[in-house]
Amino acid sequence: MKLLVINPNTSAGMTAQIAAAARAAAAPGTDIVAVQPDFGAPSIEGHFDDAFAAAGVAQQARLHGADADGVVVACFGDPGLDAAREATAAPVIGIAEAAFHAASFLATGFSVVTTMTRTCTIADHLLHKYGFERRCRGVHGTDIPVLDLESMGEALVGRIEAAARTALERDRSGAIVLGCAGMADLALRLQQRLGVPVIDGVAAAVKFAESLAALSLRTSRRGDYAPPLPKPYAGWAAGLSFTAAD
Q1: Percentage above 70 pLDDT, the chain
Q2: Do the beta carbons of residue 37 and residue 59 sit within 8 Å?
Q3: For burial by CB atoms within 10 Å, which of 75, 129, 141, 196 has the most?
Q4: Which Pfam families does the entry mention (predicted)?
C-alpha cells in the first residue's frame, strides 16, 4: 500500500518530521511517500499562508496522487482538502478531520491545543464545517511559531503540556487534540503525563487512510468530487490542467 503524505508548507525539515511520524504509525508494508509544494510559505500561520498551501496541496495531489492508495494532508488547517479529493480518487484525509473523529470515539468532549492563537479561528471554522462544534469544548493557542517545533526542546514541551492541562480543567474535556503536524511526536509523551487520550492527527489520518484503502473504498466521483472539468490552466499551473481523458 502506498500513502502520499503532503506537507502543505515548503519546510524540508517539517516534511521529514511528518514523514517520520507517518512511518511510525503506518502498518508494515505501507510505503509512505512524503512531498511538499515547490512554492508557498515555510509555515502555515494565517489565511494568506493557507491560500498558498491549498494550491500546493492541489498541485501535489494532481502530480502524485494517481498511483497512491491514500493521501494525507498534513496541516491542521486541512488546506486544499476538497481540491485534492477532486484531483484523485484515492481517499484523502486531512489531519484535523481525522483527529476530530478519533477524539470523538474516545471522549464525550475534547480540546484542541495548537500553535499560534491567530490560527484558532481556522480550527473553529473546521469544527463547524465537519460538525464537531458540539464535541470540541475549546481551542487553545500557545503562540509557539510552527517552525520552532522542528527543534523541540523541553521548554516548548512544557508550554504545550501546560496549555493542555489548562484546557482539560477549563473545558472539562476528556481528550486533547494536538493542533499541528509538527507536534506529532509529542502525543505519546503527553498522553503519559496527562493521563488522557492525546490525538496526533498525522497518525490518525494514516490509519484512517490505510483502513479505507484496505476496504477498497475510493472517493466518490459523483457530484462535487467528480474530476475537475477539462480546461487549460495558465501560468505555473499549466501542467496541472485536466483533459477529457482524465
Answers
A1: 100
A2: yes
A3: 75
A4: Asp_Glu_race
pLDDT digits (tens, 9 = 90+) for 34-51: 999 999 999 999 999 999
Mean pLDDT of 77-100: 98
Q: Going from the N-terminus, what domains does the chain have, and what CATH number goes with each? A: 2-94+204-240 (3.40.50.12500), 96-201 (3.40.50.12500)
Q: Considering only CA atoms, which of 195, 165, 164, 162 is closest in space to residue 179?
A: 164
**Residue 216 backbone phi and psi in degrees, to 5:** 60, 35
C-alpha distances out from residue 68 to 4, 13, 39, 84, 108, Å: 6, 23, 22, 12, 34
Compute the average pLDDT of residues 138-161: 92
Residue 110 to residue 207: CA distance in whole angstroms? 20
